[in-house]
Design goal:
Structural class: alpha+beta
Distance between the termini: 142 Å
Mean pLDDT: 81
Number of helices: 9
Largest sheet: 5 strands, antiparallel
CATH class of the largest domain: Alpha Beta
Shape: rod-shaped
Low-confidence stretches: none
Strand order of the largest sheet: 2-1-5-4-3
Number of domains: 3
Radius of gyration: 42 Å
Helix content: 40-55%
């Protein structure tokens, strides 16, 4: 007899299926909610990333603008001396100095700090910092040659003021008894009339007193305030008068004088004081060159500045002497007082002009004098 099939409880299965479907629907709803939340979070993250990228882009643009428009040379190198970053000023420095000299300058200062580096007559100030991630260095470099020159002139002017005050006091103290000495020497000469040896000695005393008095006069000229009467004149007018006066000295030493003054160049100066400047510089050149030597004088005019240069073929001036050349009582001459160029410097400064000297210390010296055109 065949078995009867079990009776399936369909209502139970339907209930279980309904429960499973409900659970699935609930899970789907929760998943959909989570997805919405994740999508919102992803949107926020994308917005934040875009915002950060925009900020980074702006910051990068700002840094590039700072580097490109900086007046300082900015460059960074890694541990193998490879250049990682450089701005346009760095490119200019490299072009001017050459890559080898530029890199030698950087390698000379691979420690954090601030350094002054002398190179080809120029002074560079290097600020050096560490570049940790690349194990390298970042350099900020400025050409401070002009600033150094101005600082040197400021220090020189301060010394001149102090020395001027001291010299004026000493000059007055010395000058007071000089007149008495000259007077008594003259009276003694009169009393010794007929005594040749005595007369000779008294004349030597008078001559010595007058020499000292001349030196004192120069000291007082150096210390007193210079009053200018500037006027526009042709540079040739100033120079020609002086050259005519000194021509016999050049002739005695068979000096070849080359006058390259441009007849159209003008200078605004006190005529007599400007002649004194030319006189002193050319006279020094005559004394410096050997027999048969050469002196060249040139003029220039550019913008608001004009002036002249005097170049001689003498023995030159050492670098150490050039640094103190315009300070009183500094001289290379055996019988010089060292006041001539100090007075020249003061006259030129009173005109708001400038004077500089260049020399190799062995074969030439070149003075450059600048005055305002008007």
């Amino acid at each position: 007899m065949a078995e009867k099939p079990e009776k399936v409880d369909k209502s139970g299965e339907m209930e279980m299926l309904a429960q499973a479907f409900a659970a699935f629907s609930e899970a789907s709803a929760k998943l959909e909610e989570k997805y919405v939340i994740i999508e919102e979070e992803a949107k926020k993250l994308r917005e934040e990333v875009e915002d950060k990228n925009l900020q980074l882009s702006k910051l990068s643009g700002l840094l590039s603008s700072v580097l490109d428009n900086s007046n300082s040379c900015v460059t960074a190198i890694d541990g193998q001396d490879n250049i990682l970053v450089k701005n346009p000023v760095a490119d200019s420095f490299i072009q001017e100095l050459g890559m080898d000299l530029f890199m030698d300058m950087l390698r000379s200062h691979e420690k954090p700090g601030v350094y002054d580096h002398e190179l080809d007559g120029r002074t560079f100030r290097l600020s050096v910092g560490l570049l940790d991630e690349q194990k390298g260095f970042v350099f900020v470099i400025n050409d401070i040659t002009h600033m150094k020159k101005l600082e040197g002139e400021r220090q020189r002017d301060e010394k001149l003021v102090l020395m001027g005050e001291m010299a004026a006091n000493i000059a007055h103290e010395i000058r007071n008894p000089l007149g008495s000495i000259e007077l008594f020497a003259s009276l003694l000469e009169r009393d010794l009339k007929g005594d040749e040896s005595g007369t000779k000695l008294t004349r030597s005393i008078v001559k010595g007193v007058r020499t000292i008095n001349s030196i004192i006069s120069n000291i007082l000229l150096f210390t007193k305030e210079i009053k200018l009467e500037p006027i526009r004149r042709h540079t040739a007018d100033v120079v020609d008068d002086v050259i005519l006066y000194l021509s016999h000295l050049m002739k005695d030493k068979n000096i070849k004088f080359i006058n390259n003054i441009d007849e159209d160049h003008m200078v605004c100066c006190d005529f007599e004081l400007c002649k004194q400047v030319v006189m002193n510089i050319v006279h020094n050149a005559i004394e410096a060159v050997p027999d048969g030597g050469k002196i060249i004088i040139d003029s220039f005019q550019s913008g608001d500045v004009s002036g002249f240069t005097v170049t001689d073929s003498g023995t030159g001036i050492s670098e150490s002497m050039r640094k103190k050349l315009f300070i009183p009582f500094q001289t290379t001459k055996a019988k010089g007082t060292g006041l001539g160029l100090a007075i020249v410097y003061k006259i030129i400064k009173a005109h708001n002009g400038a004077i500089s000297v260049d020399s190799d210390g062995t074969s030439y010296t070149k003075f450059t004098v600048e005055f305002p055109v008007k």
